[in-house]
Specification:
single chain; alpha/beta; Rossmann fold; 11 helices; 8 strands
Length: about 325
Amino acid sequence: MPNQLIETITKPDQAGLYPDIAPFRSGTLPVSNLHTLYWEESGNPQGAPVLFLHGGPGAGSNPRQRRFFDPQHYRIVLFDQRGAGRSTPLGECRDNTLPLLIDDIEALRQALGIDKWLIFGGSWGSTLALAYGQAHPQRCSGFVLRGVFLCSPAELDWFLYGMRNFFPQAHARFARQVGATPEEDLLAAYYAHVFGPDAQAAALAARAWAQYEAACIQLLPAAAEASGKATADTPAEVARDIALGQLELHYFQNRGFMEEGQLLRDMHRILHLPAFIVQGRYDMVCPPVTAWRLHQAWPGSELCIVPDAGHSAFEPGISRALVAATDRLRSAAPR
């Protein structure tokens, strides 16, 4: 049947998000003999294309992420990256690298018949957004980035050790799970457990990794449930936590499959494109200094520091700023 556009709701709610909307189309895209991606489209079938890139690596997409975009203006594309969400196999690290993720985005763009699109990404999604944009600048109309992460050694060191200055209890649990002291090489210890021969120990370690991150993403712990990152006990949520731990370890161990400083080095390829950068002042997972460095390297960009927010995209100040950015970029992403 032909695609149907629902035209009943356009106003954001008090948290800044547009109301819930269902996909008008979804499907799967085989990208290798091993990996098949889940994708979906919502909003206006004839609207300006926008691509949402989820974080992690490995976090997957969820329905609330459709709500950052005006559904009457945008053709909203979400997909789950290799090994994440509803893509299969879940948690698979083989044939899973940054260059392959970039190729997947191009394969999806071509499969959907899209010439160029607005790129929206937070946390690891901002890493992938920049890497894709620098590889294919002619396919991008602009960027909205949140909680910027460039996968530098300093950022990885902060995640593994620096956050304990603010979350000492969570960090102590994190280290204890793999029998390490907080000063030991936690990346190596977790990698050995998660990819070791003991399946039960691997699952427990992978989930402990995901829970450590989840414990640190909110300015206020009471906001955890609303973020969609709170610890859950259903089998599906446990499986997704494990996949997140596996894929983050895989990418962090390999430094994101990039050369050191690559994303800032190659900024000249996308300097001509508009960009909005949204950053929580108290983001403990991806500290604001990284967003500031990106902003300094991108003279035409706009940086919004949200004064009462941490890392989560669904903290009210962050979500309002993201929706404001996508609203403003409607002129840069014409139908």
